[in-house]
Amino acid sequence: MGTQQLNLTPAGQAPLGVYRLEVAEVIDETADARSLVLRVPAELSERFHYKPGQFLSFRVPYEGKLLTRCYSMASSPDCDALPKVTVKRVEGGRVSNWMNQRVQAGDWLEVLPPAGHFCLNQSHQTASDSDIVLFGGGSGITPVFSILKSALRTSQRRIKLIYANRDESSVIFRDELRQLAKANGERLEVIHVLDSLQGYLTTEEVRHLVRGHAGAEFFICGPGPFMDTVERALLGLGEAPARIHVERFVSPPDPDELLAQEVEARAAAAGSACEVLAVELDGQLHEITCRPGDTLLQSCKVAGLDVPSSCEEGFCGACMCRVQEGETLLARNDVLSTQELAEGWTLACQSRPTSARVRLKFPD
């Protein structure tokens, strides 16, 4: 392994926007997955407050590079005292294998604040009595489990979890799920689908499993083909796309690849000069100027605007915003769907203005 063992202390300096958190506990979930419980100091409690279903981004040194990876929190802010991420080994995965082999309680990790839009909406204005149907595939159970626990604690909604795995030994959170199902038998139904016994989940099986849950709110996370099958089946049943939430993670390019992409993107936008960038943030409108070639996020930061952001590499979606006026050029996108792009959403960290005036709105 080329990854270095971190030996970080609270007094050490981390890059701007990155924090150092201590690993309070390591839990071996299965033979190839473990959870890391993180201790958040009181002065960072507000910064690390999170919504059910969000993730944390970790920065790990590897052979002279600083690799960034996102891992969803399996903990619930409504049930658990400390945040917990769960990491499953990926064949050839540099960071996931290091997390499973090397990290121990007492180690310090570089972490970015919570991010992500794959969340249970708990606001009073949008709270719903509709059912919640959760689909988790493999380690995709992690954000789904967070949502499940919070929904049980904060609502009276019926919940159904369909959890697909390779075999019984690969079922993460097996005992916790059994206990929750036993304690909440009238509201929670857990169905396990094992490839070794039933094969891969099919569109027809999805249709059968969601029978009686029309109009539910659906959350899907897992391997790409698994998510595609579930989403296709739900859309085929006429379920509203706005009620189907899909979480897709990809590993970002290495830093040298990102640098090459940055140079290319700046060159592509160099001929465009934005005179006014209007930014609606937290109900207030700010008009700022842009330096040629800067991304929307870079311009906002230079102007002192505290807009939401996390990885700044185009794969976490924390800086999603909607272009309400003008034109922009999106260099890299591993987050936004075709529908979201059509609705005007972009990633501030990867998008550059290409018209004289651009107006953005960040979600409240």
TrEMBL record:
Coiled-coil boundaries: none
Cofactor list: FAD; [2Fe-2S] cluster
The UniProt record lists the keyword Transmembrane helix: no
Residues annotated as domain FAD-binding FR-type: 16-121
Alphabetical UniProt keywords: 2Fe-2S, FAD, Flavoprotein, Iron, Iron-sulfur, Metal-binding, Oxidoreductase
Keyword Translocase: no
Residue stretches making up the 2Fe-2S ferredoxin-type domain: 275-364
Record-level Gene Ontology MF annotations: 2 iron, 2 sulfur cluster binding; flavin adenine dinucleotide binding; metal ion binding; oxidoreductase activity
PANTHER family: 1,2-PHENYLACETYL-COA EPOXIDASE, SUBUNIT E (PTHR47354:SF8), NADH OXIDOREDUCTASE HCR (PTHR47354)
Name of this protein: 3-ketosteroid-9-alpha-hydroxylase
Naturally occurring in which organism (per UniProt): Pseudomonas cavernicola
